[in-house]
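FW: tagging you since you asked about this chain on Friday. Here's the raw sequence from the shared folder, copied in full. Didn't touch anything.
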Amino acid sequence: MRSEEDLELVARILRGNDRSFQDLVERFNGVVYSAARSILGNRNDMEDTVQEIYIKIYRGLPSFKWRSKLSSWIYRIARNQALNARAGRRHDLQPIDENYKIASTANRPDEEFGRSRRREQLEILLRELDENYRAVIELRYMADKSYTEIAEIMDIPVGTVKTYLHRAKAAMRKKIRSSGLETGWKGSPD
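HL: got it, structure written out here
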């Protein structure tokens, strides 16, 4: 289950090469980010959780047994840490939304607000999806992973990835239609 590239990367990290751990972070950031985002949704919760995920990965590497692919192991750590963070977060705190950032001078403020608002509404609809559907969408379209990579990361068959993706896109289309956000989002067909 181990690739030579993964094996060498882990070996360098275990020998104390800090740059190699940074390489691991860069290589698997999309996987970690997608797993955390699909469960937590908002960026404020994700930043702290992503840091905790990388700490767990770093501390866990010496005991990694290569029973699964490195990407699958990292995904499971990220998913479990995100689930723990979601269970432990306070629900009475509301994050400051990105809409409060200063609008780009390249766009009119009303256009920038409209785009920001649509993006926020899409993220809300995405959070309403089943966790598996959300994870597949995140990995495919936000982390730019292939079906095979998603299957390996999530430890599911490629056919299941395709089924989840098809169902997720259908569910998102339905949610978008019922929310009035239809314009501008078609759901990328493959």
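FW: The radius of gyration is 18 Å.
HL: agreed, and Confidence is low (pLDDT under 50) at residues 90-105, 185-190.
FW: great, closing this out.
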